[in-house]
Amino acid sequence: MERDLDQINVIPLVDVMLVLLVIVLTTATFISTGQIPIDLAKAKHATAAIEQPVVLTLKNDGALFLNQQAISMDGLGAALGAYAKETAVVVRADRATPLERFVTLVDTVKGLGYSKVSLQVERS
What we know:
By secondary structure, the protein is of the alpha/beta class. It has a domain at 54-119: Nucleotidyltransferase, domain 5. It is built from three helices and five strands; from the N terminus they run αβββαβαβ. It has helices at 11-33, 76-80, 99-111; strands at residues 54-58, 64-66, 69-71, 89-93, 117-119. It has a five-stranded mixed β-sheet. The longest helix has 23 residues, at 11-33. The radius of gyration is 30 Å and the shape is elongated.
């Protein structure tokens, strides 16, 4: 009643391997592109999805610049009014700037409703 196995049936193994190959190839396509490929509609007045932060530069002599253009502290509210309240504001201050000027600038920006305020520094 003992029977010797002369052969191994590989058909179930091949079926399982083909299913696994299909699954791997399908998911690899989505991973490599990162998204489902579609052809988006075109618009003339579309805006960029990624907004650039507003850069405020404060020099040690008290000069204030908004995106490389000189402004006064009194005109800061009007100049920032052109940007949405959700826009990130990056403050670049000279290391010799008195702390009081820096705090006044950040306080003014936060008082205008901008909550995403950060300080740009250099890594030492």
